[in-house]
Amino acid sequence: MSMAVLLLSMNLFAQTENTLTDQEKADGWKLLFDGKTTNGWHQFGKKSVSSRWKAENGALHIDATQKSGAGDITTDHTYANFDLKLEWKISKNGNSGIMFYVNEDTMYKEPFVTGPEMQVLDNDGHPDGKIKKHRAGDLYDLISSSSEPVKAVGEWNQAEIKADHGKLDLYLNGVNVVSTTLWNDSWWALVKGSKFKSWSGFSKYKSGHIDLQDHGNEVWFRNIKIKELK
Q1: I want to staple 114 with a disulfide (CB 3.0 to 4.6 A). Which of 24, 63, 103, 170 is the partner?
Q2: What is the average pLDDT score of the chain?
Q3: Cα pseudo-dihedral 167, 186, 78, 103, rounded to 10
Q4: Is the dihedral angle over the CA atoms 111, 113, 116, 122 positive or is it negative?
Q5: Across the chain, how many H-helices and E-strands are there?
Q6: pLDDT of 8 over the 50 cut
Q7: SS3 for 204?
Q8: Cα(126)–Cα(90) distance, integer angstroms
Q9: How far lies 216's CA from each of 28, 38, 63, in Å?
Q10: What is the DSSP code string of 72-109?
């Protein structure tokens, strides 16, 4: 087979970004981003998404040059037991994150007050890269990644967060980098030893929103999909 034919064959079978295969649909996966709009998302604590968050070139992107409208975006729906998959890439020196079990009660002013976070980071360029448990793929300030399969700045990383009746697993580029259990004595000991120890609502909720963090830097997300687990 010639190289040209081989490349054509590969392209024919390549999945279009921000779509689901028939098998994924049959298995219960749902898209959280259609690749064109911010439908299904809203600014934390608000009803809509500011123009700082843009749906362009098939990705959800923070336009960091636009200073107004800063803030995280969260899913319209809440989730209890789920498998979340997405891709992210970060700008040079950038910082962001993916939170879950975020609660929007008005008593909570920021998503991170309640939601645990899988860190998104330029490890080499951002100061957090020098802090243990603050590097890409870490369960932020709680558990360091068992390894660091993160790709270079500007490249897409595949992330997965699977929360199944208290069992929590984080994957980065196909590698299971964090595995723990929520809400047992060991978990609360971890929280007590972290920056979240005095935050009464942190990781308290067993259902909540998925949240994409605006940490002031450019970041891109795509192929965001979720499967609710029974």
Answers
A1: 103
A2: 94
A3: -170
A4: positive
A5: 3, 13
A6: no
A7: coil
A8: 11
A9: 34, 19, 9
A10: -EEESS-BSSEEEEEEEEE-TT-EEEEEEEE---TT--
Q: How far is CA 105 from the centre of its chain?
A: 21
Helix (H, G, I), strand (E, B) or coil at 205: coil
**Type and span of the H or E element at 199:** none
pLDDT band at 15 (very low <50, low <70, confident <90, very high): confident
Gyration radius of the chain over CA positions: 18
> Residues 43, 70: contact at Cβ < 8 Å?
no
pLDDT tens digits, one per residue of 140-199: 999 999 999 999 999 999 999 999 999 999 999 999 999 999 999 999 999 999 999 999
* pTM of full prediction above 0.85: yes
Run of H or E including 187: helix 185-192
Q: 213 vs 71, 118, 165, CA distance in Å?
A: 7, 10, 24
Show the tokens assigned to 24. Answer: 């994924």
β-bridge mates for residue 132, sequence order: none
Pair of tokens at residue 80: 């209890």
Cα–Cα–Cα angle for 145, 148, 152, nearest 5°? Answer: 140
Q: How far is CA 173 from CA 39, 95, 151, 170, 199, in A?
A: 27, 18, 8, 10, 31
